[in-house]
Amino acid sequence: xxxxxxxxxxxxxxxxxxxxxxxxxxxxxxxxxxxxxxxxxxxxxxxxxxxxxxxxxxxxxxxxxxxxxxxxxxxxxxxxxxxxxxxxxxxxxxxxxxxxxxxxxxxxxxxxxxxxxxxxxxxxxxxxxxxxxxxxxxxxxxxxxxxxxxxxxxxxxxxxxxxxxxxxxxxxxxxxxxxxxxxxxxxxxxxxxxxxxxxxxxxxxxxxxxxxxxxxxxxxxxxxxxxxxxxxxxxxxxxxxxxxxxxxxxxxxxxxxxxxxxxxxxxxxxxxxxxxxxxxxxxxxxxxxxxxxxxxxxxxxxxxxxxxxxxxxxxxxxxxxxxxxxxxxxxxxxxxxxxxxxxxxxxxxxxx
Length: 352
Known about the structure:
This protein is an alpha/beta fold. Among the domains are: about 1-105, no CATH class; about 250-350, no CATH class. The protein has helices at about 15-25, 30-60, 70, 80-110, 130-150, 150-180, 185-210, 215-245, 250-255, 280-290, 345-350, and strands spanning about 1-5, 5, 120, 130, 265-270, 290-305, 315-320, 330-335. The protein has a four-stranded mixed beta sheet with strand order 5-6-8-7. Helix 10 links the parallel strand 5 (about 265-270) and strand 6 (about 290-305). Helix 6 (about 150-180) runs antiparallel to helix 7 (about 185-210) and helix 6 crosses helix 8. It is elongated. Mean pLDDT is about 80; it is low at about 1-20 and about 340-350. It is found in: Membrane.
């Protein structure tokens, strides 16, 4: 955050505990009650005292060019606060990478982001994942960002833009939850939006005035990320519509007969597609190009459903596609977004 020409760094002490927020959301390490109590009785007082103290220090030292956060604390508390600040930075970096991995995994499951290699590091906790490409990207991007600017003022401007963007997005998402899930009175929702979003927009317009001093990097990065997600979503939609239009008709399958006009070799063939009904066009390409096809064919479709838990008995839905002599089946694997595995692991489960 930047006010005029003075440098203000966020209070770092509460970050040791605010990091638990993302860990709770991603890995369920902490209970809801513990997070609520910590935020109300520890984080909020620390933030208020920290920011009010810095504001009071600025009012008394308008011409200071030092780092306000460390200049406003007593000299005897410098080293303890520096130690806590470094611990908070370590926790914040761990939280950021965990939250990024979780967002990428869920975006991939929803079809909003290109598929990446996701490694599940624990068999007990489903949320513990590692995305090598994203991890290396964060490393390179952070080093390039710090090396390019090298000024805490520019980094502070970028931080303020990112923080206000998160606050506005949180307000928008809470508004949607209030309308669709909690079903709160529309007038109360409007008051909530006008007050909080209006206040956040005022601050956001102020930080946009310093966009050329560091904030432009995050704005460009957000625009590039949005374009990647938009293009991938648009392309996935076109691909699905194409599969629906070009799927093979049942009349054609009946004309080919139970041998499908080719040689049926022993074994099981798994054909992954997005269709929940019908035979994909790619299967017709297999029939015309491959010298033989397996004796049992299973069309695998993985869907992610918006429910908290999918019972084990309802996770895999099997049904016959053609008459019994064809030995063709469809398997719909249903997963919650937070329960999804890599696609390769799903196919191995189905094959067994």
